[in-house]
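Lab notebook, bench 4. Still working through the backlog of constructs that have no structural model yet. Next entry is a single chain of 302 residues. Request: give me the structure tokens for it.
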Amino acid sequence: MKIKKAHIVAFLMLTSAGGGAGAVWQFHLSDALADLDEHLGRQSALETKILYLQDTFEGKKPEYIIGEWAKANDPWNSAKNERKGYFRLAQDIPEPVEYPDGERIPRFFYEREYPRREQEMFDMLAKNKCLLQMPAPYFNAPNISTLPSNPNEKEVVEWLTSFNRGAYTVKFLAEAGAVEIIDIYSWNERTNGMGSLTRQTTGLEFTISMRNLAAFLEKLRIAKEYYKVEAIFLSNLALRNPNPNVSVQMLLTTAVYNMREPEVTPAKSGSSGFGGGGRNAPVDEEDEGTWWSNFKRNVLYL
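Model written out:
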């Protein structure tokens, strides 16, 4: 049998096609099929785990279980909670003013409240023999002569709250022994990225004796609340006096810890807990220890 040229060409083409197919299989399809088998195995394992979680933790909200796990395993939570009493405002700082029910005209309410609160501040200053050199109106709150004709409830509450906080700072300095209060300026509150700590810095300018200033700084140092003197500048014009009145400019920061507890409410009707599909069983306090132990042992491997 005579081999023709066409036969040789056809053979070479078939051999090349087979080699190309083998190369594609070796360098691409085999790896792709191996990845597919791996992903299918993962899918099967995840489906098995989801079914297990649904059967074991049905009706339990994920936020609650995560919160329980964090509280049991994160030592920083305990440390922060222990410090929450330190990062707080003093107990006697005035709360925000509440607008009274049934008060129809905000201006009338302000005209009653502002003079009374202002007079209380002046009486306190006279009792402590302290002069207030700040010009009226005080603490971004208009007095009666500068009061707008038709303020709304929100404005009235903000003004009175601002005045109360400013009057508290005046009392704070006067009771510390300040003989003259020249200026008080507060910056806006600052909250860290996690929302757990809110700080506010206040600028203070006042005159006080050196002995009372030392006692005031010591009071801030040992206070149960957080106080930080960011900066202080003293001016003493009576160098020969052993206890002179000094002019003080100070930046004082306070801080409040905003504690956020994990939500502990059971899943509501229509909710399915982990992964969907579970029955809406309430959180049973009697079996809480059991399922939590199962969760740590079988899911978190603790």
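Notes after review: Strands lie at 131-132, 180-186, 190-191, 197-209, 227-235, 245-257. Residues 64-84+260-275 form one domain. Flag for follow-up if needed.
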